Amino acid sequence: MTIAATDILTKQQFIQYYRQILLPEVAEQGQKTLLSQHIMIVGVGGLGTHVAQQLAAAGIGNLYLVDDDKVENSNLPRQILFNPESIGQYKVSCAAAELIKLNPDVKVNTYAERFSKDFSESLFAGNSALKQANEDERFILLDCSDNMPTRQLLNHWCARHFIPLVSASVSAFSGQLMLIDGKNTPEAGCYHCVFSSLDIQQNCQSMGVLGTAVSLVASMQALTAMKLVLNIGSLDKYLHIFDGVAMSWHKVMRHRDLKCPVCRHWPESNNTESVHSLALPSGETKL
Amino acid sequence: MINVVVNSQVHRVLENSNLLMTLQLIAESQSLDLSNIAVALNQHVVPKSQWAETFCQQGDQIDLFNAVAGG
Ligand SMILES: [Zn+2]
Are A200 and B47 inside 8 Å of each other by CB? Predict the structure, then answer.
């Protein structure tokens, strides 16, 4: 159960991860934490392939890839774990093969399935290591999916089980990112507190997208996950917005919707001020 | 009337307007779908259930974000 956390790094691992270990925020203990971490990536497309590659290289010990799609020619400009020989094969299988080559320390679990309600409900029952990791707070989920119904479903499942969720999305030149954590930052709310629509007609297929923009948003998503796992910095309660034309990131503070049907079972937070009083502290004049 | 800045554009709204009224006014003129957006008032997201209870003040900065769902 906690074997990995008490293990000593091998000499080879120490050398391999040395530049990370050199950071006081990471150190040898942090590298062991990374190696004992479990991260599920839902959607192995543009965001998912980038995120998986970065996390595997960093030594996240257990990755879970979920996607029922097969590789298509039009995926290659941005889905970096695939090549022309991957076309027609399951994305999760091709991605897993590349990740294991990149870092043999990583155990990659693949699910060539859609993240559905049935799938989510059978996950812990079918994988005791994952269930244990969640109980030990060593499990987080990254939303790299490409549609709104899946985003809402993931949010719902994570909210119910108090699984930290790093949600990222990208379309055309726009990206969005948020960390949802019902246990530690309930006052920031869940995904549904920000975006409540069940479906929208807008994705990479209809809008177009550049791989370079995808890569930037994916790096921020992977960084958010690493910081969370390693406990670096304060917990993020923002909605981050990327504008690839203006080359800028912008952020706004999130607040829980007390009428949200998804996160209403979360604990009370100390933060009960109204939004306007938060937005405009008394005495502060705008413009 | 008071001035509020919505996505960098100045709009004049009635003094006692709440956020919902202001958004409906803008949605009409810009064919905006209010069910798909998040709204930030002075850099703080205002949950949808509070739009009608949040009153606009002179100089408020309102930012509207369309949900992005691609990956
Ligand atoms: Zn919520």
Answer: no
Q: How confident is the model at residue A205 (pLDDT cuts 50, 70, 90)?
A: low
Q: What is the pTM of this model?
A: 0.92
Catalytic residue among A94, A144, A193, A204: A204
What is the predicted pLDDT for the residue at B31? 79
Q: B69 CB near a chain A CB, below 8 Å?
A: yes
ipTM metric: 0.95
Which structural domains are found in chain A, ordered by start? 11-283 (3.40.50.720)
Q: Could you count the other beta carbons within 10 Å of the beta carbon of residue A16?
A: 17
- Say whether A253 and B47 touch across the interface (CB within 8 A): no
Q: How far is B63 from chain A (nearest CA, A)?
A: 9
Structural domains of chain B in order of their starting residue, each with its CATH number: 2-66 (3.10.20.30)
As to burial, measured by CB atoms within 10 angstroms (0-12 exposed, 13-18 middle, 19+ buried), residue B66 is middle
